[in-house]
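Reopening this one. Same input as before:
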Amino acid sequence: MAILNNYSSPQATQTVGVKISQPGTDARTASAGQLIFNSSWPSLAVVFRKIIPMPTDYNLQTIPHNLGFAPFIRLWILDSNYNPVNNLNYLYANWGVDTQNVYFVLSNYSIGSYIYIELYNIDLSVDIDYPALPYVQYKSFYDSNYGIKVSKDGKSSNSTDPRNFILHSRYRSPLVKAVKTEATINSSNAGIIVGSNTESTIQYTNQDNIPTWNYGFIKKGSSSLSLQLPSGAYEYAPYYAQSYPVTTTDGIKTSVTYITNSSFGQDLGATIVVLRDPLIASNTVAATY
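Same output, byte for byte:
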């Protein structure tokens, strides 16, 4: 049986906000592709950041964040100079998050000095599809007098350092296309018997036929097949064929399968976070807009 995409759960229409159009275009009537900035476009804001020394053991580590929701999470290993060494993929660690804590377990491949944790303003429990976003943006030479800039307290709006701004229309964070959960799972994907297990699958396909950056999680229940997080926590599902959980993607179509009933227990659901742009350690790639 073919796996089908989750049903749509569109974002509510935005009636207020800020729009900046290309020169010579009326922002009130401009199409999405004619806008340089639109405050209704969902961007990936950081809500928690922490750097901790590399643990010296392979036990479950618990780091409080106390946000009250389960946020989208990424972790990196840093060297002694705070430069990224490796993304914490399945070979280096396994991790997860719930409404109060970050959890991770290192492996003997984890070589570095620090663990860098970032949490973002995406609730992994909320299923939502955001408006179609343009892939072709207006390009021109940099004009420091054009756009919108809001500097941090005590910083100059003429600064060329993007870290000094709360908002800058020329520096773009990754845009969010969708968050898909079991809340809108297609009935054809649920309760499939595979061997001795009963499985369900969430799936997302980018209709623009352009690769997206996709991150999968399972919602922990009583399964003993993977990292022992509390029930209801979200565990990262890496791209690693021999693991459980696992995310599969070709860049266009992405899916996460979770076990709803087996002799090893069960899990409660899954989530795919779909980004239009890559999410990388901030000092590994320089981008000019």
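So the earlier flakiness isn't reproducible anymore. For the record, Residues 151 and 157 are 5 Å apart (CA to CA).
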